[in-house]
Structure formats: structure tokens, C-alpha cells
Amino acid sequence: MKIATYNVNGVNGRLPVLLRWLAETQPDIVCLQELKAPQEKFPLQAIEDAGYYAIWHGQKSWNGVAVLSKDPNMKEIQRGLAGDDEDVQSRYLEVFVHNLLICCLYLPNGNPAPGPKFDYKLKWFDRLQKQAAMLLEKKLPALLIGDFNVMPTDLDVYKPERWVDDALFRPETRAAFHKLIDQGWTDAIRTLYPNQKIYTFWDYFRNAYGRDAGLRIDHFLLSPTVKDKLKSGGVDKHVRGWEKTSDHGPVWIELS
């Protein structure tokens, strides 16, 4: 089974790219982030025509997450994280499909840091940690998937010395990510490629893609009941080179 994640950076504006990639790679399950579309503007018909069912949590202008599946037996479990009744940002969606709990997330960017946006990022991370701990306690076959806006180690960022004050690389952010890992989650891509430079994001500026000056910020975290099923994974880096594409590349894993 092939599971993918893709920050599309606007699902309607990048729809031709998304549909081309889906046709080319045919993943069984896809998590999308940064839809940048209200609930009623999600391109459901085009997605269905491509052979996928969808559950989505949209938001006007910003954010938004979705889970696509070839299996119609997909059930929404939860949208949004507990712990802040005033948080209206569409960043988290849990769906049960193929006997897996797919937790699609788009963690806040947090810049500029320090500041209110960084505080929100850390609080959101804390809420995610509590949700993740509960999933592990229940021994669920769960996957935390999406754009975490975190480079966990120096290996995950081009020229780390330039990023020390960035919200995606500050010590507090990396500590929050490693706290998740320490709960018992497995970083799938890093497990497959322990010492290899792997990027999932290349900025639009300064020819970042051409120079391969990237970041690894899109992750799969696998619960203990899933980790032994991990077979392979990678990044469809070439998609970042397509015309009018997202600044992220799709990332995927295969489970037995």
C-alpha cells in the first residue's frame, strides 16, 4: 500500500499538477495540506474523476487539509485538535481507512520567532503531543502525516547555520518534534535513509530547487503497530520542477 503526503500550496491553483502526479504515481492514500480553499470550493469532482474519494477540512485563503483514498470505505474520526476552543484554523484531520488511522496535519509555520505566531506553533505542538500520546495509549495503527514545518536535525536542512533563528529550526521546535518521537513514533523517511540528505521543500527564491538547497519538513510518523510494515519510501522530487508547481515535493511510503 502506497501512502503519500503533498503540501499542494493551493489545491485549485495547482490542480493540474496534483492530477498529473496522481495519474503518474497512483498512491492508495494521499494527505494534502495548504488547500487554501473554503469547504465549498474543494475540487471534489476533479478528484473523483481521478479515481479518489475525499474528506477535507477547508478554510478560506489559508490552511486546509484533506485525505484522498481509492477506497470508498473511509470514515472521518476527528477534525481539529482538542485543547483550544478558539482555534479555528483548519490544520488537523483524522480519517480511518484500510484499517489505518490517518492523521493528516499542517503544523503552523511560526515565523517570525519569537512572537505570537511562534507561541501558537508551540502550543499547537503541545496539543498534537497530547493527541499522539492518546493514540499510542490505545495501541491504534496510526500515522501522523503531513507538513510539520520542522527540520528535526542538521541533516534535514541546507546550510543549517543560516536557519538557527527560524521558527522551523529553533531548538524549541526541534525539541517538540523529538518529544513526539520519544513517545514511540518512528520517523519513516529517516529510518529508511538514516544518513542521507533528503529534502521535501525548495523555496521559490534564489534558484533553491536548481541548487538543491532544500529542507525536510514533510514527515511520516508511524505508531509501533505500523512501523514493522514499512517497506520503502521517497520523495517525488521531479514534481517540484514542473511548471506552476508547489514549493513542496510529494513524499511517499509503502507499507506491506
Beta-sheet strand percentage? 15-25%
Major sheet strand order: 3-4-2-1-12-11
Biggest β-sheet strands, sense, barrel: 6 strands, mixed
CATH-level-2 architecture: 4-Layer Sandwich
The backbone outline, from C-alpha atoms, is globular
Number of domains: 1
Number of strands: 12
Portion in helices: 25-40%
Assign the CATH topology: Deoxyribonuclease I, Chain A
How many helical elements?
7
* Full CATH superfamily name: Endonuclease/exonuclease/phosphatase
Low-confidence stretches: none
Q: Quote the average pLDDT.
A: 98
Q: Structural class per helix/strand content?
A: alpha+beta
CATH class designation: Alpha Beta
H/E series? EHEHEEEEEHEHEHHEHEE
Using the CA coordinates, give the radius of gyration: 17 Å
Question: How far is it from the N-terminal to the C-terminal residue, by CA?
Answer: 6 Å
